[in-house]
């Protein structure tokens, strides 16, 4: 019996879309794709914005600039959205899902914004909505959470989910450089955009944390703003202090249980112990570290971006959607757990590293220590660097409530002996709960 034929449309032929078209058309993969999809996949259209642009590898006859027309095609089985952005991508996806066409997307921004609604639309129309490539590029973390770990109680997920910031922090660490030259190098090598704010301010990582958390814990995807802090305030001196103390600084996206029904989701620079697996993730690589109640710690590592790595994840989703289509079933993308509540970051507890520029004069230490004490933040260790106007105090606290540390910082700012607050960075697994 010959295999059924499923029609696939792709919106976007940029880094990811062009790589996907190449993988779908690669004759050496044909048999494997047929086996995995249990169907012939026929690429019926590729929608782009600018038809005049040369697109080697994309058959001319398949190209059009009518994305909505492709999404609404009556004979379409699977729509792949790899154009990015919220609108009009959302409208195209809704047009497909609304008619029962399965959708594969790599769009983390859209999933974080409207994932719950899109998942409902998919389910109501008997279609699949897969988005593996939205987090960690080639790393199959969402599928692992959705299937292999579906029966496990996840306690915490920590990820290095933004390659640009990891590249910059790795440079700062290996070359003892400051933030600005490391960013410049990332831009020159194409790892950072001309406007790097989505990456360096943590917006990209925050969207990924939301997507991970929806699968790990059942938190909704409704465009909530989660606590976010980027890497622009990290200085060479902090990186150096971290190294001397046995840590490396990483931008972590964290989603974790707090108490019986709380979930904390946040993005921030963190001191990671040198022996922690995440500390060994260098350059533009991504990694996701999962702690399950019974599974223990697990980690996935790989290319978090790039046309082909990302396209492999998209292709895996296309194959899943195809198999489901043939067997007449569909997956539920994730189930929202209404019993959970979001815990404000101020209520979470952590060990903190703080650095202050101070005047080197008698009594400074006592007044600084007094502010810590007044807010119930106890000091684990302290070091002074430099003298006179160059004096800097670096503290590591015992585990403290984030809100108390914030109040301590406000109190310290008011001291005449404190010139400026340098950094306030969480220390992972230094007593964090
Ligand atoms: N690049 C990565 O490494 C990576 C990794 C993970 C996830 N993602 C996600 O994958 C998606 C695509 O990323 P990318 O890097 O491939 O983007 P890209 O290189 O900028 O490509 C975007 C493509 O979408 C097309 N497009 C844009 N607006 C359109 C419209 N209104 N109608 C039809 N086509 C339109 C563009 O057409 P023109 O070519 O005519 O401009 C282009 O071909 C994004 O959601 C991104 O977040 C990317």
Please describe the topology of this protein.
Layout: E1 5-11, H1 15-25, H2 30-37, E2 40-47, E3 63-64, H3 67-71, E4 78-81, H4 89-97, E5 102-105, H5 108-124, E6 129-130, H6 141-148, E7 154-160, H7 163-175, H8 179-188, H9 197-200, H10 203-216, E8 227-228, H11 236-244, E9 247-258, E10 262-273, E11 285-292, E12 296-303, H12 307-327, E13 341-342, E14 349-358, H13 364-374, E15 379-385, E16 392-397, E17 400-401, H14 402-413, E18 418-427
Parallel strand pairs: 1-2, 1-4, 2-3, 4-5, 5-6, 8-10, 10-13, 10-18
Antiparallel strand pairs: 7-9, 7-11, 9-10, 11-12, 14-16, 14-17, 14-18, 15-16
Bound molecules: NADP nicotinamide-adenine-dinucleotide phosphate.
Describe this structure in words.
- It contains 14 helices and 18 strands.
- The strands form two sheets. Strands 7, 8, 9, 10, 11, 12, 13, 14, 15, 16, 17 and 18 form a twelve-stranded mixed sheet that branches. Strands 3-2-1-4-5-6 form a six-stranded parallel sheet, sandwiched between helices.
- The model has no long low-confidence stretch (mean pLDDT 96).
- Helix 5 runs parallel beside helix 10, helix 7 crosses helix 8 and helix 13 packs antiparallel against helix 14.
- The longest helix is centred in the last third of the chain and has 21 residues.
- It is of the alpha/beta class.
- It is elongated, with a radius of gyration of 24 Å.
- It has three domains: 155 residues, 3-Layer(aba) Sandwich (Rossmann fold); 150 residues, Dihydrodipicolinate Reductase, domain 2, CATH 3.30.360; 83 residues, Alpha-Beta Plaits.
- The structure holds NADP nicotinamide-adenine-dinucleotide phosphate (NAP).
- NADP nicotinamide-adenine-dinucleotide phosphate binds next to helix 1.
- The site of NADP nicotinamide-adenine-dinucleotide phosphate has 25 residues, from helix 1.
């Amino acid at each position: 019996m010959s295999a059924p034929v499923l029609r696939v449309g792709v919106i976007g032929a940029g880094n990811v879309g062009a790589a996907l078209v190449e993988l779908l058309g690669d004759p050496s993969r044909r048999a494997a794709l047929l086996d995995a999809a249990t169907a012939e996949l026929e690429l019926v259209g590729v929608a782009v914005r600018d038809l005049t642009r040369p697109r080697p590898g994309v058959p001319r006859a398949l190209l059009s600039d009518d994305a909505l027309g492709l999404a609404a095609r009556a004979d379409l089985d699977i729509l792949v959205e790899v154009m990015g952005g919220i609108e009009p991508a959302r409208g195209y996806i809704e047009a497909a899902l609304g008619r029962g066409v399965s959708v594969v997307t790599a769009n983390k921004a859209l999933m974080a914004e409207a994932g719950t609604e899109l998942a409902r639309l998919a389910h109501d129309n008997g279609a699949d909505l897969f988005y593996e490539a939205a987090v960690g590029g080639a790393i199959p973390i969402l599928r692992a959470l959705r299937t292999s770990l579906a029966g496990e109680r996840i306690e915490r997920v920590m990820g290095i989910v933004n390659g640009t910031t990891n590249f910059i922090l790795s440079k700062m660490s290996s070359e003892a450089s400051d933030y600005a030259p490391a960013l410049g190098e990332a831009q020159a090598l194409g790892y950072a955009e001309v406007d790097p704010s989505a990456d360096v301010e943590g917006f990209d990582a925050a969207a990924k944390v939301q997507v991970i958390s929806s699968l790990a814990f059942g938190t909704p995807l409704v465009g909530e703003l989660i606590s976010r802090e980027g890497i622009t305030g990290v200085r060479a001196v902090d990186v150096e202090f971290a190294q001397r103390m046995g840590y490396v600084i990483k931008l972590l996206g964290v989603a974790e249980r707090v108490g019986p029904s709380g979930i904390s989701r946040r993005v921030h620079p963190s001191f990671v112990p040198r022996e922690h697996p995440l500390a060994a993730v260098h350059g533009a690589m991504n990694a996701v570290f999962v702690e399950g109640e019974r599974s223990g710690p697990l980690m996935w590592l790989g290319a978090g971006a790039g046309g082909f790595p990302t396209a492999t994840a998209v292709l895996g989703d296309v194959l899943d959607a195809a198999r489901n289509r043939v067997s007449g079933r569909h997956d539920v993308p994730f189930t929202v757990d209404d019993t959970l509540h979001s815990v404000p970051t101020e209520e979470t507890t952590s060990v903190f590293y703080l650095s202050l520029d101070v005047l080197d004069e008698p009594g400074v230490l006592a007044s600084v220590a007094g502010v810590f004490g007044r807010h119930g933040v106890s000091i684990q260790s302290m070091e002074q660097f430099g003298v006179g106007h160059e004096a800097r105090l670096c503290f590591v606290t015992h585990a403290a409530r984030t809100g108390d540390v914030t109040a301590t910082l406000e109190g310290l700012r008011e001291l005449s002996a404190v010139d400026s607050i340098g950094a306030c960075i969480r220390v992972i697994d230094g007593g964090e709960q």
